[in-house]
Amino acid sequence: MDYIATPRTEAGDYTRMDTTAMHQLDFSEEASFRAPEGRDALFKKMSGARPATSTPRNPLAIRRNVNARNEFTPVLKSAMKNRTRQVNGLMKGGPETPAALKPGFQLSGTPLPEASMMDAMNSSSISLSVDERTPVPDMANSSDISTPMALPRRGDEALDGSGNVLTLREQEARLDQIGKENFGLKLKIHFLEEALSKAGPEFHSAAVEENIGLKMDKVTMMKDLKQYSKSLKKAEQELESYRQQLKDYAEKVKRRHADEDIRQEMDELRQLAEDREAEIKELQAKLEEFQDAGNDVDSLKAELAKAKEEVAQRDELLDEHENEIEQLQNDLKSAQESQGDDQEELERKLAQQAERVQELEEEMQAYKRSKEEEIDLMQEKLDSVSGHRDEEVHELERHLDEMERRAEEAEERIKQERSTLEERLRIVEREKDVEIKALQRQIDNFHNEKETELEAIRERLQLAESQGDNQVQLAQQTARDWQQKVIDLTREKGVELELLQSRVDIAEARADELDDCRRKLREAEQRLDRLQTQSASYEQQVQELGRELKSKERELDNLHKLKRERDDATHEIQGLRFEMSSKNSQIEALQKMTRERDDLSRQLSTLQTSLQSREHDLSALEKKVQDYESNLAELNKLRTELGDRNRELETVRKTLTEREEALDALRNAADEATQLHDMHDIVRQRDDELEALRGDINRYKAEIESLQRSKSEVERELKETLENWGQDKIDHEDEIEVLQEAADEAQEEKASLEAKIAILEQEVQATYDLQAKSVSFDADLRKAEREKAHLQSRLEGLEAELNVASQERTDLQARLDKLNRELQTARQSTHSNASPSKGLAELLKKAKLEVKDLTIRVAELEHDRNDLERRLKADIRERETKLRIAETEVESLQLTVAEKQGELDALRSSSRQNISPNTHDRNTRQYQSEIRDLKERVRNKSLDVEDLQIQLEERDARLKDLSTQSKSLLREKEKKLRELQESLQHAQKALRHESTSDVLDLKTQIMDKEKRHVKEIQGLAKQIQYLRARCVREEGFRESLGYQKRFCLMMIEVYNQCNKEDLRLIEEIGITPDISYRSRKHSLKTVGLAIVAAVRMQRLSEQWAGQRKVHAQLVQKVEAMRRRGARLR
């Protein structure tokens, strides 16, 4: 079937007509509509109420214009739907197809139209459904039926357990639940994988051991901490409570009388303080005893360390003996491989070795016994020290308990005295409050009566004036009467006022007495302050004791650690004993090696550091492991060799049997018989040797097993020690690296100094050479050396100044950082302090002064630099003049050399003919020597000039470097100064801004608080006014009730008197009443009611007691405010 599409929220589809299908529309009258029955009698049935419709409603009809919000709400409003769902769920387990959706359904008498072809043309429900399911009408997305429904197949189960299709909200909830379950499953998988990874045997054993150790350490440490910190915490808490109680007591004593009780209490407190001081002295003495005991513990530690070193030495000796055993085994093998003639020698050696082994075993047993005795003595010492420490700790705990008990007793006494004093003060205040209230009430009543009388007189006067002149005289007379009455009343009231004034004077006198009491209380407060200072000093002493106790706890922890180390050492010693019992070695070599190792250990203990000793221990342990492994390998080799030997023996036995068979044929020969007997002896000896070797192999197997066990223990210990020593090694390596770097730097400095010394020596040698070569330039050279030394000193001074400048630069940087930190702290303090401007101003002044100092220092450095530049330029000019002079001298010398050469040539040419050859030769030699001298002088001068030029160039380079460095330093300093000034300016601006904002914030906060305070005071005044009126009203009610009660009692008394008179008259008549009185017993109900009434009254009185205290405090405050206001007036 198909339905008419109604307008939905999709505006583009259903809110306007489709123009494409306009020609298909039919606006003719539908024949399927028929008028409902009873339509004409509709108005006849109406009788003032709304008629009920008689047309039946089809529950499966389309719901038009239903709110779209129902889409996301559960469909649970219809009881019929719930019932059908439950029935269907119980019967079939799935929703049934509605009747309207079944094939062949016909609408009953309904006013709705049947399906038309026009609707069928635009609908898609004509086509066959998928999977033969019931077709569903197409709906818009915003409809409450627009959620896609997947109807189940015939006989399939429903979508959920109740037979209902899930809504969107239920689907979201189901998806969230599935996501949570998936996350939980992922977590389970992760933790299971982690548990499986940790389920291995090696990890499990290590974790178990670590857990056991951690738990033991935790339990012991927690127990010790609880035992030793409990007393300190209790003492601190009690001291804090005692201090607080003293403060409260000082505040309350201001309102009490100073009497002998306070003095006694002060004496008791002083006595208690003296007792505490004596106890503190005792504790200090005990702490000194603890320190002495700590020295004993240190000596025991040293002895334990020595024992450990000796054990390590013995270990090394055992390793060496194992090596010797291996060597002997090798010798034995070599001997076995040799000829049979060496068997006797080997047996003799084996016997000697056995004797030596026995001797070694005896000596080792003696050594073990001595060491065990030493260890037992050390154990007894440690036990005695620990027992002494435990006794001292218990004694300290007893002292602390006694101190706590005394403090509690003093606190109880103080509480009792405080309660008595408070009760006295409360009684006095209550009496004064009652008197003041009575006086105030009388004054108020007098004023009220007076005002009412005056008002009545005025009213009567006004009434008399209004009635006319004829009654004026009567009114005047009455006015005079009333005036006389007023005068009398005023006189009486004046007397009463005088009485009240006298009472007020008495109250003021009592107030003066209270002021005196308060003055005395202030004095008592001062005394309490002194006591508080004393108590503070005692608290400091107690804190010192607490610190000392903590130090003693640390010492006890160290003792426990020593104990554990001692236990570990005992375990190690036991293992070593087991190893030593299984070792066989030579005694003489052992003694020699022990003596050598003792000497070496003493030498190494004096020379090596802690790092080297630990590295040595590590290497020894590694060596042990390696030796054990080598022993295992050698034992395996021995096994293989024994197997080879067994095979050889088998072959030998076979050969022997063959030879015996051959010898049976040759028994007649005596020589052969003796040879056979010798061969049998040899075979027996070999068998004995083999048995001995088998015994050795078995023994070695046992040793291997023991070594494997010890190896596992040593590996475990190695792991622990490596973990502990690794960190120490890293630290020592870092220290060594630092020391190495320092040594390298020192070496570099040394090399540079040596190079400088060598250069200086070369320069000195050069100067000596110059002095030896040329005498004429000695003075110049000395002067140059002096100038050189002066320049060197100046250079050193410049270098020192550069260092000073760099130091000042670092100082400036530090000052800058300090200023920045101070600025930050000042900025932070502006939020917390009330007046930060003073501190900021001081900081700014300091910064400005530092800037001025820096500028002055920079100016001085510039001035010094300019002076140095001027001096260096003058020195350079002098050097240049000297160079020019030297160059002129060199040129003159060259000219003289040229002249001499010309003269020599001329003389040669002129004297060739006239002078004899001898004279000619002599003259030429003379001239040549002079020329050589001149050339030498010229060469020396040129070398001097070159040296001077090099020195000048070096100095120029140094001067340039110095000038560039000084300029760079000045630029950096100027830059830093500018940055400092800018930062100071920014800081000043920020501080001004922050200070103004803080001041404004404070002003606004103060104004808000003042407004709130004024409002609170107004509210409190209104509340007090209301409560006062209420109290006055309640007091009036109570007074009226009291009057009524008194009136009732008076009436009862009248009735009693009347009854008595009636009885007397009856007795006078002669009728005597029955005098016997039968007392009526109280019933259970009356007793219960009486108990309930008593309990109720007691409860109400307890509740009202708190209110009474509050009322008394309020009254006291009000009276104090009134008195203060009167004094101010």
Automatic annotation (TrEMBL):
Chain spans, region Disordered: 903-928
Compartments where located: Cytoplasm, Cytoskeleton, Microtubule organizing center
Domain of life per record: Eukaryota
Keywords: Coiled coil, Cytoplasm, Cytoskeleton, Phosphoprotein
Domain Pericentrin/AKAP-450 centrosomal targeting: start-end pairs: 1030-1104
Centrosomin N-terminal motif domain boundaries: 167-240
KW Phosphoprotein (keyword) present: yes
Positions with biased composition (Basic and acidic residues): 919-928
Keyword Phosphoprotein: yes
Pfam families noted in UniProt: Cnn_1N, PACT_coil_coil
Compositional bias per record (Polar residues), positions renumbered to this chain: 908-918
Signal peptide: none
Record GO cellular component, one term: microtubule organizing center
PANTHER family listed in its UniProt record: VIMENTIN-TYPE INTERMEDIATE FILAMENT-ASSOCIATED COILED-COIL PROTEIN
Protein name, as recorded: Uncharacterized protein
Native source organism of the sequence: Sporormia fimetaria CBS 119925
Species classification: Eukaryota, Fungi, Dikarya, Ascomycota, Pezizomycotina
